[in-house]
Amino acid sequence: MSRNYQWHPLAKLLQTPRAGEEWVANFNATQFRAQLEQLGLPSNASGETVNRIDKRMLESILRLYRSAVHVGEEWQPGLEGVVAPGLVAWGENDGGCPVRFADELARDTRAAQVLKLDAGHWFLVERPAELAHALEEHWKLSQPRPLRQMVTPRAALP
Questions:
Q1: pLDDT tens digit string along 10-41?
Q2: Which of 35, 55, 121, 141 is buried deepest, with most CB atoms within 10 A?
Q3: In the chain, domain spans
Q4: What is the Cα–Cα distance from 127 to 134, expressed in whole angstroms?
C-alpha cells in the first residue's frame, strides 16, 4: 500500500494490454511452478497452487492486477484512517516486496506491532507456526473492552 512500490515483472506484464491476455492464453503450469519455486515457494505448496489454477482463476488474476496498477497511490492516503490495532507481518527476505514496506505500512496504519519473519514472500507457508503464535498473542492483547468501559457515563460529562 505504498505509492513508492514498483510492481514485480509478472504484475507489470499482466497489467499490460495484450501481453497479459497472451500470458493467460499461453499459461504453462510447469514453467509457472518453477518460477514460484525460484521465488522461494516450497515445492509442495507450488504444486498445490498450480494444480488449482484454472481458466477462471487466470482471468481473476488478470483482472486483479489490472485493477491494482495504481493501488499504492490510491490506497496509501486512506491508511491513516485505520483505527484498529494492527499487526503487520512480513518476510524479511521478500524479493517481490522489500521489508522496508513493512515499516512504512506500520507507520501509516499506526500498527501495534511489526513482525519480521525469517522468510520470503510466502511467509504464511514458510513460517505458519510463528505467524499463528504472533496472531494469537496480538488478538489476546487487542481484545475489545466491554461496552461499559468504553462509554463515559453522562454524570461524568461536564
A1: 999 999 999 999 999 999 999 999 999 988 89
A2: 121
A3: 9-69, 82-141
A4: 11
